[in-house]
Write a structure and sequence with these properties.
With 614 residues, this protein is an alpha/beta fold. Helices cover 34% and strands 14% of the residues. The strands form three sheets. An eleven-stranded mixed β-sheet has the order 1-14-13-15-10-9-8-7-2-5-6, sandwiched between helices. The chain has a two-stranded antiparallel sheet with strand order 3-4. A hairpin with a 5-residue loop joins strand 3 and strand 4.
Length: 614
Amino acid sequence: HCLWRELNNFRAPCSPRHKQQRNTRPILVMPREIITLQVGQCGNQIGGEFWKQLCLEHGIQPDGKLRDLPVDSDNEHGLMPIHSTYTAHPDHAGPNHMQGSSSTPSNASHSFIDDRKDVFFYQSDDLHYIPRALLIDLEPRVVNKLLANTTSNSSPYHRSLFNEENVFIAKDGGGAGNNWASGFRQGEEHHEQVIDMIDRESDNSDSLEGFVLCHSIAGGTGSGMGSYLLEALNDHFPKKMTQTYSVFPNWDQTQSDVVVQPYNSVLTLKRLTLNADAVVVLDNTALNRIAVDRLRIPNPTVDQLNSLVATIMAASTTTLRYPGYMNNDLIGLMASLIPTPRCHFLMTGYTPLSIGDYYYQNQNYQNLNQNANSSVGNNATTAAASSDGDASNTDTTIPIYTSNKNTSYNANTHSNNPRKPATATSQPPPPPSSSIRKTTVLDVMRRLCHHDNIMVSANTRNTTSSCYISILNIIQADPTDVSPTQIHKALHRLRERQTLRFIPWGPASIQVALARRSPYVHSAHRVTGFTLFNHTSMAELFERLLSQYDRIRRRNAFLDNYRREPMFQDNLDEFESARETVQCLVEEYRACERVDYNKLEYDGGDGSGKSGRE
């Protein structure tokens, strides 16, 4: 009874004349804007890396200006000559607008990229791009670093990229002290100022689709103030979608420096269950395992893990920014993954993930910085390319691998002509500590379901009980490298092997979206894949959290700081309510493994007797 859904971006073959006419027809899709809220230290750190990646993929320099399309990238990446409908650039008009000739202005090369920058960016009066982002924190350190001129490795940062009116830092700057109740209280105190910022950004949107919240669930500001913002968004924008990228803590408490993280996590998880529409779980334990086992980094730093998270976040929004005919908005992307309102906690995976790709992403971003500000050319670094993460070179030749040829770019070579081809070398140096293997659609789709590639420390290999609820695979490749036949064969092989166990009360839902690659980013692999899926083994994560919570709650340990806050001065009922909500969530995920799930009713933990938020 399996239902293997067919994928977007594929059409039946047609004659060359019809194909030429079809390729010149623009995809008229109204951008659905998304506002990003970065809350707390962790939220702003991963948010900063996320905007780095988006600027790199859309050719936006650190000052917000567009850079020129790489030479011959139109042919290499198979881009159709379709102009970006909602990009208002003065050079995008003219008689040669759709010709692609060398006589067109340099910025006219962007007319061949059908990307939707307006989903995450908007343009100012001087036509530089500004992220639709709010930087919120109760202490100034991390936000000030994002807005500083330079980072620790002396490379230029996005000082002039963010809108400084969208930055909120508490006046006392004391933070929340890893106390969820303190963060929640300060969120209430600063409600009016933060909501005014959100209203201003929403009024600046033509068709706002929803919000994305980046935060951690174990600290003080990201968990407490993030929880308050989830409730406020649910009340203030009840018809808008709210998705979160939530960082879960290390489960080994010997590696954690926050002893009250079980309290903070349970209290936050209640709001994620009741007030969020989709939660992408980013597990610190799994991220460290992948960095050590896959990237061969013995002691991964916070910046390296944040870059890994940014790769996942950017990959999950690929179909929104490079639209096709399906999955081109956030609601459509999540609709098939979440069959019931409460089961909206999603896992992710990415493959092939090697230090070679990680090396190129960091180097490509540094090259972008150097084009924007050549004065720091001698300080280009290869951060995270080596095992210690601090190696830097003053004369570095960076290989860039494409599907047709190998070229290299010298990090210290600058030119006034940004379209000048990079200097070619006959034998570019190989990626450090990594080998490039052959990738196929079948190989990528099979590896996406492998436990070692999943960013959550849950056992998805337990085929006796746990099962998949739904799967969305996003295959990134050049159109000339992947055909519909390869997709169908890969799906057929996966069905024949019966390695994936799906829910017994519904159809097996696998969707595959073929996404185009950015012409500004070169990957060492021909095919890469990202998966976003809903799995009942997510209950293991919540059970582990409840076990840690019960261990310290049973002894009433570390509650003094909570009792000082208004919410807990009279009683500790909020703790019991939050625990009940998480326990009901566990029971609902376990019930999904039963044949009679759609006949069961569970109390949602809020006393309503309903299994989901209406």
